[in-house]
Design a protein that fits this description.
The protein has a single domain (about 1-385), classed as Sandwich (Jelly Rolls). About 25% of the residues lie in helices and about 20% in strands. The chain is built from 11 helices and 16 strands. The strands form 4 sheets. The chain has a 7-stranded antiparallel beta sheet with strand order 5-14-11-16-8-6-7. Strands 9-15-12-13 form a 4-stranded antiparallel beta sheet, with no helix packed on it. A hairpin with a 2-residue loop joins β12 and β13 (about 275-280). α2 packs across α9 (about 320-335). The radius of gyration is 22 Å and the shape is globular. Belongs to the aspartyl/asparaginyl beta-hydroxylase family. GO terms for molecular function: dioxygenase activity. InterPro entries: Asp/Arg/Pro-Hydrxlase, Asp/Asn_beta-hydroxylase, IPNS-like_sf. Keywords: Dioxygenase, Oxidoreductase, Signal.
Length: about 375
Amino acid sequence: MKIHIAGFLLLNCITGSSVSAFSTSSSYRTPRVRDTFPSTTRSESTAIHSSTSTLPDFRDTTTLPKEIPAPQIRTFAHQVEQALLAKFPEEEIQNVITSWRLLDQDYQHREYFGDTKADPLISNQYQFAHSYVPGLSVKPFWDIDNISWAKKLQQNYKQILKEFTSVIDNKEKLAAGNNVWAGALTEEAGGYGKGWSTLVLKDRGIWDETNCNLFPKTAKLIQKSGVPATEVFFASMKPHSEIKLHSDFTNFVLTSHLALQIPQNGENKCRLTIGDEVRQWKNGEVMVFDTSLMHDAINETDETRYILMFRIWHPDLTEVERDALQLIYDCLSVPELLDENEAVRLDAEQQMQVLKQFPLLKTGGGSGFGGAKKSTASKKKKKGKK
């Protein structure tokens, strides 16, 4: 059987491969989670629906239930919860357990965060999250002044842009990539239209070795900068296209963009709206924002807009909570981590360790980032042979 684990598959459902379904063995019963995220390719998020006429009423706010039952025994949800409790102290991951149980109960968190003077019937500043960790702060845009990795990305913008343009302008190089400029596969992601597409470097904590070798300088720079990213990918938005109002359904990750190529830069023609706050992309600038709030985007120019996008852990999460959430993603990537056979589990753990390693990047031909330089002695030796 196949099951879809709603919001916790957000990072999975927008990958370039159709892996959003978790195949279970016959020993598991289908958990009480909805088929919310069918397979799509990677997008800047996942649209709710393709038109506002079918948009769920995100203004119908909800409150957390007082009692949240544990998942039914021998369901996938139960197996994941047991794996969490076996690895982490329960008191340190209580919010993660609560989040997982809420998902199992089909809970959707909808809350208004707009200005008290604004009309809540008109405002779009609502949080809409299927995957909801209680207690995390909410604001449309985050100040990046004290975010060191964001500053490092901005400082290296020209280097990232140079490598990016050198690859996308070379059809032969792009042909060697993995799911290059992939678009949506399903109707549910239709809110993005046909104007956007993506190129993945990292998905749910796992680097794409093929694509990282297309952009070795960028990949290594991201790793060295310490970006707390669960996902990294380039995203394009075609001329005169828009991304309709939607939510990313998950509040425990934020989104960040490094603007690479913005047509009519600084003229307010390429804009992003989070809740009720509108900002424009500007070349070389980093933005961090909360896409569990309703949001949309537009490109009003005659050229394609390019960004480097990150899905990052919410800053309010503790390190233990991040690790617990990552374990859930690991179980989705390698379901054998939940196998009752200890030998199978150990093999799965080793497999996961290999998958999470930063890829070996080719540095030949000067394409690497900070590749090993030949020593002076070596140069002199070669010179002497001539």
